[in-house]
Amino acid sequence: MSNPVVQTQPARQWMVAPQGLSGIPPGLEYMSSLDQLIVKQRVELMEMFTGFEMRNKYDVLNSVEQQCYYAEEESEFCNRIWCGPTREYVMHISDNSQQEVMRIRHDFECCVGCCWCATDSSCGYEIQIEAPLGNVLGYAKQQTSLWKPHIRIFDANRQPMYVVRGPCCWGCQNICCTDDIDFPITDLTEENILGRMFKRWAGCGREMFTDADTFGVTFPLDMAVTSKALVFGCLFLVDFLYYEKPKNNN
Fold first, then answer.
1. Global pTM?
2. In a 3-state reduction of DSSP, which class is residue 231?
3. Which PANTHER family does this chain map to (predicted)?
4. Which residues contact 77 (CB under 8 A, 6 or more apart)?
């Protein structure tokens, strides 16, 4: 796939990148001073009026609404129409200088996404996370469960690092229940909570007529930057696997 055309972004204050840091992949310096990221998907008017799935675009913000990154999906039109959230795509993540600093890949596979069949070796929805480009940081992959979301995050050698689980009511957010839907991040014992991912209520209009959702992730301030990047990348798996389907919003 070729790199997408960089589009003009709306005016927003950008976070100042920390200086003088070493041992951190280029472009990930922002994460060294953060313990939370908010990911807001942009509304696509063409998608609203035609029903055709357009390329997803996201603004990535810190806790005071300063922009840290911009993410844009690269995928084929026919894949978006016929394959839905299981489509092949590359998510390009760029900083304020429009330099791509992370890349998230999902390859199309038939029959993925069923929580009953997903395992480490087959049928699980998986993404690969790179930073800097060409350097695989790790993976996030759906795991077997009865109905609750269950994801594992792996390092570059496919050794498990973290577990992410969601509630059985992950698709029940509505105007009468606008609380965040939490996906706790734990160690492998699932006894120690290290952070959380969450889907935030984006407002009645956005939730009813679009699939432009708002997500967030929290993690320890002293967590390794590469680990923060893996957890951040896993947010896109949560979005595509559980909230990209129109029926969950409409």
1. 0.86
2. helix
3. PHOSPHOLIPID SCRAMBLASE, PHOSPHOLIPID SCRAMBLASE-RELATED
4. 52
